[in-house]
Design a protein that fits this description.
The complex is a heterodimer of chains A (281) and B (424).
Chain A (H helix, E strand, L loop, with lengths): L11 H5 L12 E4 L2 E5 L5 H13 L4 E8 L14 E7 L9 E8 L12 E6 L15 E4 L20 E4 L12 E7 L21 E7 L11 E5 L2 H18 L3 H4 L4 E6 L13
Chain B lengths: L3 H4 L37 E7 L5 E2 L1 H8 L10 E6 L9 E7 L2 H14 E8 L13 E9 L1 H7 L3 H15 L3 E5 L4 E6 L3 H7 L6 E2 L1 E6 L15 E3 L2 E7 L4 H10 L9 H15 L4 H8 L4 H5 L3 H14 L8 E7 L2 E6 L8 E5 L2 E5 L2 H7 L5 E3 L7 E4 L15 H9 L12
Antiparallel strand pairs in B: 1-10, 1-16, 2-9, 3-8, 3-10, 4-6, 4-7, 5-6, 11-12, 12-13, 13-14, 14-18, 15-16, 15-17
Helix pairs in contact in B: 2-6, 2-12, 5-13, 7-8, 8-13, 9-11
Chain lengths: 281, 424
């Protein structure tokens, strides 16, 4: 471990204003080879993200954040496919928002708004994630090991080579895949801490593109009227397998066990369901 | 008239101008209640923690839980309420008072002297904290109604206290009752919650239940009395969100005598709890189902018996249903209740560690406070998280016989709501 360099410290003005309730410490990075390690305990999110960006600008390939608790915007707006951020603790709101390339792995849970409008890269969360996960996601992969909240995968979209993929290992609440326009959204129901069904109501309401795979079955009342449910056939499973292989590799899960139960496929049964909503005919 | 003894108005002649503590003329002294109208938008933060065994936790606990949620507020309102914090005076009502100036204090104290036996009156202990300025004079009083006055008034002590809160808030210019319960108190003001907590030396108190709030008002200035929690007797309420059914709720409440004149959505939540828990004696679970009713489509899928209960609940309390995004925590000496809107438009995370139940807007608040929670989960929309302190009874002030508009008036202190108080 080498001592802190001047460059990894935030500008003096950044820490000039002490914030009641925080340690008010200057965040420091221990740089070892291409790996920068930062103890985030009590560090204000703005100062923390400032140091992360400085470390990356200084050439670090991997940034390890220890004792994270609720700091917002980790990985937000970062670019670069080779970059890796490890979060130990509970990641705060809007993690990996607008992210374009890096990998963020959370050893703990993430809160609301993860992967908002994410463009490329990968998010791996070993715990649960909150509400509005992957909102408007347009590329990259989001892998959650545990439960997710309400409004997950809303308005995911695909375009040319961009195909967002999200796999959630636990259960989900209402509005799963609402207004979905593209990409792949998978729910496994395997690693859950909440009671009740695999997924809540309003699944795929207003959906007009992409595909949802659920490990298990849903009743018709749970689904929006714009989606049709079909048992996943061999062709579907052949598409799903590589996605699940990547997911299982990230968490050390046996892919055959995941595939040991039948999946249900949900796809839109009409094209542009609201195309005539505001049109007099 | 049964409240006559309390209706003797105190001399509250308005003075055209006054000088502040530094001797600078500040113009006309405001009536605090008149500053109250405000509306809360968007992303407030909240927390509640309750040790069901009744063991006490330091006030540093809620401060830490709110500090990690700092950015949910904008520094224009923070506050806490703690229960079990005054073991030296468990049977006294404790009035936490905010005074604009010394004259307001004299006027309020004259009223206390007249109607109460005060066993301790002292300035609220505070420390200077950067970021907290322009604080009112803060005092607290441990008191009980004067037995003779109480007897003459033919009221329960609780009713007597509510009438006094009403009288002070509506007739004593520049004075505001922040809390008035037994063995509890509200600590609130303009600032971030961690600043407000440290300002009030909250870490020196110990309570079995705490609630905390971080405010994000966007279109009106924050003021000290307008911060959450709102309290009456030992009830306190903190709220994140916006109740878009405010119009229909307030018209409904008016039929029961409540008068909602403040335009604060938290107000209707407080009165609806009062209506259902105290006046109608509904169990908490059922009251929560009336406030955040299951959708009709969900009711259709319930077992027949449950369907019948839910259908009649929605029929009876339909206009009392809260619509729009909200997360609410209600604190009381018997525990706390946390509740979300029906489709989870505001965040709420819950946890249990042994006998401790905790809720917060963000999981980080829970991780900050509980070192090894047995379970952390996001409650389903509309399903209350309830914690009850063993041996502390129910939250219902069953010996309270106040009419609804008296409750309204006590909470808001608005003159217009106080038909019972004759003010010229």
């Amino acid at each position: 471990m080498t001592p802190v360099t001047e460059l990894t410290k935030p500008a003096a003005a950044e820490v000039a204003k002490p914030i009641e309730g925080y340690l008010q410490a200057v965040p420091e990075a221990r740089v070892d080879g291409g790996v920068a390690t930062i103890d985030a305990r009590g560090i204000y999110y703005k100062h923390l993200n400032e140091v992360v960006r400085r470390c990356l600008a200084d050439g670090a390939k991997k940034v390890v954040l220890e004792s994270v608790n609720g700091q917002r915007y980790i990985g937000t707006g970062l670019k670069g496919a080779g970059t890796r951020i490890e979060v130990h603790g509970t990641a705060g709101q809007d993690m990996a928002m607008f992210m374009d390339g890096p990998t963020v792995e959370v050893f703990g849970s993430a809160q609301d708004g993860v992967g908002n409008t994410m463009n490329a890269g990968r998010v791996i969360v070993h715990g649960d994630a909150g509400d509005v996960l992957g909102y408007g996601m347009r590329g990259g992969q989001v892998f959650i090991k545990g439960d997710v909240g309400y409004r997950v995968g809303i308005h995911m979209k695909a375009y040319e080579t961009r195909h967002p993929v999200m796999v959630c290992g636990g259960k989900a609440r209402d509005f799963f895949g609402e207004y979905m326009a593209g990409g792949v959204l998978v729910l496994l129901g395997m690693d859950s801490r909440i009671g009740g069904p695999l997924v809540g109501g309003y699944i795929g309401t207003g959906m007009h593109g992409g595909v949802i795979y659920l490990r298990g079955e849903v009743e018709s009342w749970q689904c929006g009227k714009e989606v049709g449910t079909f048992p996943a056939d061999e062709k579907d499973l052949a598409t799903l397998r590589p996605v699940l292989e990547e997911y299982c590799e990230a968490f050390g899960i046996d892919v055959d066990e995941v595939l040991s139960m039948p999946f249900t496929k949900l796809v839109p049964i009409s094209h542009r369901p609201y195309g005539k909503l505001y049109t007099y005919v | 008239m049964r409240y006559e003894p309390l209706l003797e108005r105190m001399p509250t002649t308005r003075i055209p101008s006054f000088t502040d503590r530094e001797g600078v003329s500040r113009g006309e002294r405001p009536r605090y209640a008149e500053e109250a109208p405000f509306k809360i938008h968007g992303g407030c933060g909240l927390m509640g923690i309750c040790d069901e065994s009744g063991s006490l936790m330091s006030g540093e606990v809620p401060i830490r839980a709110m500090a990690v949620q700092r950015d949910r507020g904008n520094g224009l309102g923070g506050g806490f309420a703690g229960y079990g914090i005054y073991p030296e005076f468990p049977d006294h009502f404790c009035f936490h008072m905010m005074y604009h100036d010394l004259r307001a204090k004299e006027d309020a104290e004259a009223l206390f002297d007249r109607y109460f036996q005060i066993d301790l009156a002292e300035p609220m202990p505070t420390r200077p904290v950067k970021g907290i300025g322009d604080a009112p004079l803060l005092w607290r009083y441990f008191l009980n109604p004067d037995p003779h006055k109480l007897e003459a008034a033919e009221m329960t002590p609780e009713d007597f206290v509510v009438h006094s809160v009403m009288l002070i808030n509506s007739t004593v210019d520049g004075a505001f009752v922040a809390s008035s319960g037994k063995n509890m108190g509200a600590f609130k003001g303009v600032g971030f919650p961690e600043e407000i907590g440290h300002y009030y030396l909250l870490e020196e108190y110990e309570g079995h239940t705490w609630v905390g709030h971080n405010r994000f008002p966007t279109n009106t200035p924050g003021w000290w009395g307008g911060a959450h929690p709102f309290t009456l007797l030992d009830w306190s309420i903190v709220h994140n969100g916006e109740i878009s059914s405010y119009g229909i709720n307030s018209r409904y409440l008016e039929q029961f005598g409540y008068k909602c004149t403040l335009g604060t959505d938290t107000e209707v939540a407080a009165y609806l709890f009062d209506l259902m828990l105290r006046r109608h004696q509904l169990p908490i679970e059922l009251a929560c189902k009336a406030l955040a009713s299951p959708l009709w489509s969900e009711i259709d899928r319930m077992p027949a018996e449950e369907q019948a209960v839910m259908r009649s609940l929605r029929a009876v309390y339909g206009p009392g249903m809260l619509n729009g995004p909200f997360a609410i925590v209600l604190g009381f000496n018997g525990g706390m209740v946390a509740l979300n809107d029906r489709i989870k438009l505001r965040p709420l995370v819950a946890a249990r560690q042994g006998s401790i139940v905790m809720v917060a807007s963000e999981e980080s608040a829970i991780r900050e406070v509980l070192d090894a929670p047995d379970r952390v989960w996001a409650p389903k929309a509309g399903e209350p998280v309830i914690a009850t302190v063993s041996g502390n009874g129910s939250p219902v002030h069953s010996d309270l016989h106040l009419s609804a508009d008296e409750v309204s008036c006590a909470v808001t202190g608005m003159l217009e709501t106080c038909d019972a108080v004759e003010v010229s």
